[in-house]
Design brief:
The protein has 2 domains: 89 residues, Rna Polymerase Sigma Factor, Chain: A, CATH 1.10.1740; 75 residues, Arc Repressor Mutant, subunit A (Orthogonal Bundle). By secondary structure, the protein is mostly helical. It contains 7 helices and no strands.
């Protein structure tokens, strides 16, 4: 017979494996979006994974596992940002991520530059607005973002609309961020 603590640990490990299989790339993107320095982003990502694994001991299934993962990641990232751990340097081309390869290197360079400008503009947002926008860019619905952030879904929808309009305006004006 298996001891209760051993069963809990196995369940926790199983949930963690399930959470990672579906959400590890999103956690990595969140860490890179919050922390521009590569080493610090990896540290933040590890902190999120550790907090997630620890938190799963208390997961009772009242919400979707994905919502739980994003909530933990959001809380760890918010705490990290509140401590002032963010770096002010710009994202390098290597850190900008993998973009689809175009036949035209000028078009590809333009896409990298555009992505870098958009990320820089997002980094200028207040931490709460940045979190909402990053979750939106992950493809989450307002209802799910509301569960994660503690805002109402109407407030999330309004924030997303206003942030998109503001980012579009700044981007069109050529603001470097």
């Amino acid at each position: 017979m298996t001891a209760p603590n051993e069963q809990t640990a196995k369940a926790q490990d199983r949930l963690y494996a399930e959470a990672c299989s579906g959400h590890a790339p999103a956690i990595a993107r969140l860490a890179r979006a919050i922390e521009r320095d590569g080493d610090r982003a990896r540290d933040l990502e590890q902190d999120i994974h550790l907090a997630l694994w620890r938190s799963l001991a208390g997961f009772d299934g009242r919400c979707a596992l994905g919502t739980w993962v994003y909530r933990v990641a959001h809380n760890v990232a918010a705490t990290h940002a509140a401590r002032g751990a963010r770096s002010a340097r710009l994202v390098t081309l290597e850190e900008a991520g993998d973009l689809p390869t175009n036949a035209n290197p000028e078009v590809e360079a333009g896409e990298v530059q555009t992505l870098t400008r958009i990320r820089a503009l997002i980094m200028t947002l207040e931490p709460a607005d940045r979190s909402v926008m990053l979750l939106y860019l992950e493809g989450l619905e307002a209802r799910v973002i509301a569960e994660i952030t503690g805002l109402s879904s109407t407030n999330v929808a309004v924030k997303v609309h206003r942030i998109k309009a503001m980012l579009t305006r700044h981007f069109a004006q050529g603001d470097p961020a």
